[in-house]
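Quick start: read one record
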Amino acid sequence: MTRTSPVPRVPLLDLKPQYEAIAPRVRAVIEAVCASQQFILGPQVKALEARIAAYAQCRHGIGVSSGTDALLLALMALGLGPGDAVITTPYTFFATAGTIARAGARPLFCDIDPQTFNVCPGQVRALIERECQAGGGLIHRPSGTRVKALMPVHLYGQLCDMGPLMDLARRFDLKVIEDAAQAIGARDSQGRQAGSFGDVGCFSFFPTKNLGAFGDAGMCVAQDAALAEHMEVLRVHGGKPKYHHAFIGGNFRIDELQAAVLNVKLDYLDAWSAKRALNAQYYTQAVERAGLGEAVRTPAVRPGFHHIYNQYVIRVRDRDALREHLARSGVGTEIYYPIPLHLQKCFAYLGHAPGAFPEAERAADETLALPIYPELTERHLQQVIDSIAAFYRTGSGAASARA
């Protein structure tokens, strides 16, 4: 009797192999923190703040409780609140616009570049020219809010086109908060790191990130010493000295245990990101070899930019059917993000109807993230491509590819 080997599963992400490779070091630092019984803002936090700041080409790092809290802390520190507006993208994780709204400000959405999925500088310029009035500050005429800041998102691990965005920010005196939650280590063609362009750069160390903690954690980075100190005070309820509060902050501290784990993992970050890039290269070349170019569009990388591939996101025809097929074939996928923020119920008060930001809506309908984590083997990667090819050569997939 002939026995067939089971189809190997390819999960979207499997963190166990990563942990197994570094477990002795991680356990040692955790034990050291436990032995010290210093769990709040201890030496591991200070070391991580200095290391991440240097890595991001910034002078100061402020460790916080999550990437979401990093964004909220930045908004609070820059004094953004009711009556203010922040320009950002509708195609991103909820926290981007969610923190703007939580601060009391108004998100002003601009459509994305269909190639990179990042906010389009031309759309930002068009919004300002079409809906805003300069002179004594930039006023958004439809809402009457003061446009105070720009929050670009370096989506999926590739930098936005920051040159023209920073030109607009300087021209209209806008603060810049970089949502670099998915982009630690991403660089532009001049070698500038994500987080180093704006007033504040915000990172997430959620476990799925290239640099992931054992739970929630994040970091703000900044060049300005006074702004960094303000964020340090805000993260401990705005108290300095202790029990003296000149303003209201929050509890945004990073845990000492998380910092200890991240200090170990930071030593491996560049190697892990390089392996993700090799996996991405394999996918891109394999799609071409398989003749899938009519049905599958692989990620576009700006010339000279360093993409860290927190996600490898393709555009495909008949996306939902393909995803179901891949699931049956043992391949994990994810849709980032199926509903653009301007169409979320909680943002209905902004008054955007379907069609307001067509590129964001098209990306929401057509994109699919494939497994990209460093420990994937060539066999895993080829199984993903073979499964995609099988879909487009049979059944509804073939009809979709010919459409």
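The CA atoms of residues 157 and 310 lie 5 Å apart.
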